[in-house]
Amino acid sequence: MFDLPDSWVWDFWFADDGEQYHLFFLYASRALHDPEQRHYRASIGHATSLDLVEWTRGPDALVRGDAPAFDDLATWTGSTVRHPDGTWFLFYTGASLSGGGKNIQSIGYATSSDLVEWHKAPHPVLNAQAPWYETVDSGAWHDEAFRDPWVFPDPEGDGWHMYVTARAPHGPVEGRGVIGHAWSADLREWELREPLSVPSDDGFGQLEVVQVEVVDGRPVLLFSCLAEHSMPSRRPAAGGTWAVAADSVLGPFDISRAEPLTGDDLYVGRLLRRRDDGRWLLFAFRNRGDDGHFVGGITDPMPVEWVEGRLAVREALAGRRS
């Protein structure tokens, strides 16, 4: 498990350089006392591991910018990929406050040659825009949701895709969460495209920290959402991380098929394929303890497998079968 004694740790993502695994994570000081205050004090930390269990913390990757930058409130969740020329790109969420005091989120990036020293691009590359995506002007939601970029190469070699936590400008307010989509030829210039899912009466208000992978030959989309941000039909499941079996990593995605992968005690589930044996593993951060309070810290790896068309954590299945 990765944890820090003096800071809360929550959202995270990985990079694999072929020798070490790199963990990028959000953290904020426990001196805030109230964990709900952590979001506007978030920095992006960095740690490395050889075995995905023991981690060594290194220098921080990114901190928020100076006003009036698009990330002058906080730097939030992202993903890290390597360009064919060897340059590493760290895509991240920049948060800033609007004149009305609402959180506006945009997508920016930084580059590195070694995954340690990062240099930000000066301006965001994407933000929420009509007609496909809800903006703060709608007044329907507590923020302008456009965050958590997940970037991956096109399976056929046609550039790069980015999936984003976003909201549609129509549909039930607590079911407007959609998979935002953009495309790039070079990782620097991005073209915003229409979402790859639709709002639903059986949906979610936000599809946080999206990820798409092919696990044991089957495409699957992961996202996270708690009961209080979902449609009433979803609340009894008390899910944290959700999985959607798909026909392709390029979508479209039928969010009505989402099944809980973890309970709400674990959040922001991330899949990573272990290099030595090819096994797919799930990580998450500890969200709620037995007392209902926020915990923080990232779990040890948990193997996953397909069972009757659903992705499931193997230990959890073993417990139910016993």
From TrEMBL:
SMART domains in alphabetical order: Glyco_32
The protein's Enzyme Commission number: 3.2.1.26
Signal sequence interval, chain numbering: none
Main EC class the enzyme belongs to: hydrolase
GO molecular-function terms, A-Z: hydrolase activity
Entry keyword annotation includes Hydrolase: yes
Keywords (A to Z) from UniProt: Glycosidase, Hydrolase
Protein's UniProt keywords contain Hydrolase: yes
Domain Glycosyl hydrolase family 32 N-terminal: 19-243
Top-level taxon: Bacteria
Gene3D superfamilies tied to this protein: Glycosyl hydrolase domain, family 43
A matching Pfam family: Glyco_hydro_32N
Family, similarity comment: Belongs to the glycosyl hydrolase 32 family.
Protein name, UniProt field: beta-fructofuranosidase
Organism of origin: Microbacterium aurugineum
Organism taxonomic ancestry: Bacteria, Bacillati, Actinomycetota, Actinomycetes, Micrococcales
